Amino acid sequence: RTTLLHAAAEGQEAVVKLLLERGAEIEAKDKDGQTALSWAAANGHEAVVKLLLERGAEIEAKNKKDGQTALSWAAANGHEAVVKLLLERGAEIEAKDNIGQTALSWAAANGHEAVVKLLLERGAEIEAKDNSGRTALSWAAGNGHEAVVKLL
Predict the structure, then answer these.
(1) Residue 88: what pLDDT?
(2) In residue terms, where are the ANK repeats (predicted)?
(3) CB environment 137-148: b (16+ within 10 A), e (fewer)
(4) For residue 1, what pLDDT is reported?
(5) Closest Cα partner for 33 from 61, 74, 73, 4?
(6) Which label site among 74, 106, 117, 142 has the fewest CB atoms less than 10 Å from its CB?
(7) Total number of domains constituting the chain
């Protein structure tokens, strides 16, 4: 992992800013193809996500391991503020990863009620199916997330 990726993953906004000012490659990727933006989003570092987007980070970049976007990572890990920011900046709400899961299905599968609610309010397709034919409801129910099941 590059210094920029490490700083983004750890939420070190000042360090990320300095590295970018000194010419760090904003789209540098780790061995799995994850960018600084996806690391910051996955770990819930809203300020770093905002900085990277302001500096032109590719919002729809997918990692090569599983094809997840920054939005999918943030949703899967329950980072509501980051999900909201990414949506406000134009992230594709229906982007699918390599197994066909959307941000909504990831949030539902992991029981993140507030993120599920936000995604639904923003128009996420409730009936979207992954490559196995499973919907967000199916994932939430299968993982025992009663509150999310009620939302869906």
Answers:
(1) 98
(2) 1-31, 32-64, 66-98, 99-131, 132-152
(3) bbbbbeeebeeb
(4) 75
(5) 61
(6) 142
(7) 1
Q: What per-residue string of b and e applies to 13-27 under the rule 16 or more CB within 10 Å gives b?
A: bebbbebbeeebebe
| Domain span at 124 | 3-151
CATH number at residue 115: 1.25.40.20
DSSP state letter for 63: -
Measured CA angle at 26 (ends 115, 23), to 5 deg: 150
Alpha carbons 36 and 112: distance in angstroms, whole number: 23
52's tokens: 């990277």
Query: Which tokens is 110 given?
Result: 């992991």
pTM over 0.90: yes
In the three-class reduction of DSSP (H, G, I as helix; E, B as strand; rest coil), residue 117 is classed as helix
- Asked whether 31 and 56 are in contact (CB, 8 A), the reply is no
What pLDDT sits at residue 32? 93
Compute the radius of gyration of the chain from its Cα atoms.
Answer: 15
